[in-house]
Structures are given as structure tokens and as C-alpha cells.
Amino acid sequence: MATPLTADRLLKALRDEGLEVHEYRDWRTHNRNSKGPWGPVNGVMIHHTVTRGTDSSVELCYEGHASLPGPLCHGVIDKSGAVHLVGNGRANHAGLGDGDVLRAVVGESALPADNEADTDGNRHFYGFECINLGDGEDPWPEAQKLAIEKVSAAICRAHGWTQRSVIGHLEWQPGKIDPRGFTMDSMRGRIAKRLGAKPDGPAPEPPASYEPFPGADFFRNGRESKIITAMGKRLVAEGCGRYEEGPGPEWTEADRTSYAAWQRKLGYSGDDADGIPGKTSWDKLRVPNV
Ligand SMILES: [Zn+2]
């Protein structure tokens, strides 16, 4: 049992575990706290999204949908192992589950079968949605499984929990099958091993120097440059990525639409949000030196 981590502590715990973490929009204040309690927290719950594609999955988990408003979890773990934080506080991910399971998680004892739906899980669990179709065929890259292991271990470390505080949605709510593609027992084994060792240490600090503005003429069809890839990655990290594929080195319409989203995020509109970089918005984007 524990008081939920603040946004800053959660972020630091994840980064200290060596994870690449992206902060999506106003995740720090995005929650369902007006609909019910958040905390005490007792564990971490792992899910699969039944979606493909990072940008659209992250947006869905932030926004939710008509019958289930977002956030649908606290973080999304993409196939490359990056974590996208979308919520902080109560989130719509666990639903009603088995109170006997909650008691086992609190006591860190063996899990009973989940055969009742009598307890509000959104109050008690951090939730992480992992991008996977959940059809038993969509692969789980090792980078993604490693990130699940690290996210779980980071939160367990922060609260002083063991791997027994990490469960799958399928162990909580009758009828759920997620995550599908690996067993939670195997994942708990990995988490236990990691908790027995030191954290990996923070992921590399962002570079001290940034790519200078190359001039508006630089951004035209046919241009290929590492700067454009680096720009695209920053746009994705800022929640402005509008890429079906990529980002890549070639300047494309997707780069322009993504950059326009960044300009709008900065408050520009009309011609000032045409997707062609200008110096002010470029400097604010902080594109690392390539
Ligand atoms: Zn689920």
C-alpha cells in the first residue's frame, strides 16, 4: 500500500531504470480523479492495446473513446521499448476485478484465480498498455519486453514492492486475455532478477547542443538529411508526430503536417502554422545535433 508517485518521481524512476520516456501532451494533469479515488496504490498492471502504430495508439490511450474516456493507462510501451506517458492519476484501464487478487497483491502472496469482478482496480493499479494486436501472432520484440520489465521494476523499486506486485489484466478481471504472447510468470521472473540488481542508470542525457536552424529553404521536397530524421523524432516526442512510417531523412508531407502540429502546439495558426519550420519554433523544438 502506498501513496501514488508524483509525476516527477514516476518520470525519474523510469529514466533511472534506463528507459526512453516521452511525455505526451499534458499527461501530468490528465486523469479521471474527478470520477473516483486514486490510491492507495498496490501494484502495476500490464495490458495489450489491440492496436498497431505508435502515434495512433498513444493518442487513443490519451483520449480514450466515447464509451471509455482517457486516459486508458499511465503509459504506453511501444514496440521499440520507448514509454509514452499519457496519464497521471486515476486511469480507465483495470475496471472491476477480483478483490481476492487485490488482497494477494497487497500481501505479495500467490495469486488466486480471478473469478469475481467486485473491486475497483483503477484506484489501485498503475496501468501500462503495450502496443500489440493481441491475436497471438503479433510479435513481442525483446526491446518491448525489456521495457515492460524495466517499467515494472522501476515502480516496484520506488515503492519497495517485489515482482509479485505486477500482474496482467488477465489475472485481474474475469474474461480478459491481455497481455497475450508471453506469460506473466515469466515476466515476473525477469522483474525479480532485475530487482536483485542495481538499476541501469539514467538513459543518456539530452545533448547540450542543438541543431541550428538550417533556414526555411532547407525544407523542400527532395531534401534528404539526418537533420530531418532528428527533427521528426523530436516532433514524435512532443506528441506532434503525424507519421504513418518514419520519421526518416527525406522531407515529406508527413514532416510538414507533423511540424504544423508543433506550430499549433506553440500557439501559431493560419500561415504561421503551415508546417515549414521557422527559427523560433525550430529553436523551441531543440533538435539534437546530428
Ligand atoms: Zn487490458
Stretches where pLDDT is under 50 for at least 5 consecutive residues are none
CATH fold name of the largest domain: Lysozyme-like
Mass-distribution shape: elongated
- Rg is 20 Å
Tell me the strand percentage band: 5-15%
Helix content: 25-40%
What structural category characterises the helix and strand content? Answer: alpha/beta
Broad CATH class of the largest domain = Alpha Beta
Average pLDDT reading = 95
Order of helices and strands: HEEHEEEEEHEEHEHHHH
Terminal Cα separation, in Å? Answer: 45 Å
| Major sheet | 6 strands, mixed
Keywords:
290 residues; alpha/beta; Lysozyme-like; six-stranded mixed sheet; two-stranded antiparallel sheet; 31% helix; binds zinc ion
Describe the structure.
By secondary structure, the chain is α/β, with parallel strands linked by helices. It folds into two domains: 7-195, Peptidoglycan recognition protein-like (Lysozyme-like), CATH 3.40.80; 216-285. Helix content is 31%, strand content 11%. It has helices at 7-16, 54-63, 99-107, 142-159, 184-195, 226-237, 253-265, 279-285; strands at 21-23, 43-48, 64-65, 68-69, 75-77, 83-85, 96-97, 119-120, 125-130, 166-168. The structure holds zinc ion (ZN). The site of zinc ion (ZN) has 4 residues, from loops.
Task: Offer a quick outline of the entry.
This protein is α/β, with parallel strands linked by helices. It has eight helices and ten strands.
